[in-house]
Amino acid sequence: MALTGLQIFKLLPKTNCKKCGMPTCLAFAMQLAQKRAKLEDCPDVSEEAKEQLAAAAAPPMQLVTFGTGEAQVQVGQETVMFRHEEKFHNPTIVAVTVSDKLTGEDLKKRIESVNSLQFERVGTKLGVKAIAVINDSGSDDAFAEACATIKGASDLALILVTESPEAMAAAVGKTADAVPLLAQAAPDTAEAMAKIAKESSCPLVAKAESIETLSELTEKIKAEGVEDIVLSLDGLSFRDQLFNLSRMRALSLKKVFRPLGYPSLSFVADPASRRGGVDSDSDQQAAMAVSLICKYSSIVVVDTVEPSALLPMLTAIMNIFSDPQIPVQVEPKVYPIGEPDEKSPLMFTTNFSLTYYTVESDVEASRIPSYILVVDTEGTSVLTAYSGDKLNEKTVADAMAKANVESLVKHRKLIIPGYVAVMSGKLEEATNWEVMVGPRECSMLPKYLQEVWRKD
Questions:
Q1: What is the DSSP string of 393-417?
Q2: What is the pLDDT of residues 354-377, one digit of tens each?
């Protein structure tokens, strides 16, 4: 639990020496509590105080990374139960399973299917971040070979899933440089799995059927020298799994219960689908995965490679892990749609992503090459920006000048959203351009461009 300014003050030397740049130790303590100062700024603080303050300042949930280079992902280090309290920091990782029973062309096709699960939504890249290799064969050699093949054929992070320490050791021997996540250590295999994780410097998943057993297991693994741990609840009904994920989150963040202060991993998996190479009910997997994402699972492993199932999961992650105080925005500038020329229409909208991409889609549907000028309104929609005076004749005129739109078109005509028709007169005065009032509904843009613009 974070210390208050007064609690920090009690640990300081109380000399008011001003060496930290603050007038008093109490003022410095208040700045420390608000994270506006660093403890190192105080040259006289004792080592004991440093240790206490460092322990108190440590995040209640451990940050865990796996993968390397551009494929590296990180989970954990969350600080709040609910997004509106601050924000969530590290988005849930979606991983897709690949069975080590697949070989040859079947294995190649499965890897290609997983690699292709990348999308773009409102200008943001979304995609699967990891492959979970499952030791369905029970063979140490088959598991190791499958892991090595997947490592060579995919840039995604690896999760190695086996209950056998021998199989894990064989697989890590061929993939350690990719820093895979090792899943998973049960109470009876904890020492052996922890030894492999420590020697390979890889994070380890702890698996148990209850929160109580999990907390004991993490302490056991930590005692073996492994600090990077991920939690997994095993053998519970879906309802109980969701309930206990919430309990774990509350205990780690609200009570700062360190044995449960780690990110979590959940499986939405059907072994039959892996062995047969055919997806199980992808809609059901999508629904379960989204529920786990909403209820704090840091990594969700699914079997399906259906894009229609993966996109809802990734969209949910995008929405949940966006900063509630910062709207999703696009860069304010002129965007050419198609291959416009000096006779093409010019219109403006705001830099709220959803607004821009809706306009872009409808302009593309008109099949009339156009220019869209995006005005910076701090990521707000047209009406919201206008009512807050972030969209007015001055902001539009400034955006036009900055983008040098006079060099793009010769007709000096600007189409504005129908909802802000009231600003047309002042905009004409500010720009000396002819202002054309577009439709109120964006869906009417194709008809407007084809009928009104062309006739004009």
A1: HHHHHHHHHHHTGGGT-SS-EEEE-
A2: 899 999 999 999 999 999 999 999
Q: Letter for the amino acid at 193?
A: M
CA dihedral angle for residue 48, residue 54, residue 60, residue 61, rounded to 10 degrees = -120
Comparing CA positions, the residue from 346, 348, 330, 345 lying closest to residue 419 is 348
Does 3 score more than 80 pLDDT?
no
Domain count across the chain: 3
Within a domain: 297: yes
The CATH number assigned to the domain holding 211 equals 3.20.20.20
For 432, the 3-state DSSP assignment is coil
301 exposure class (CB count in 10 Å sphere: 0-12, 13-18, 19+): buried
pLDDT digits (tens, 9 = 90+) for 20-43: 989 999 998 888 877 677 778 888
DSSP-assigned beta bridge partners for residue 329:
352
Q: One-letter amino acid identity for 416?
A: I
Q: How far apart are CA 41 and CA 327, in angstroms?
A: 35
* Residue spans of alpha helices (H) in 13-102: 25-33, 47-57
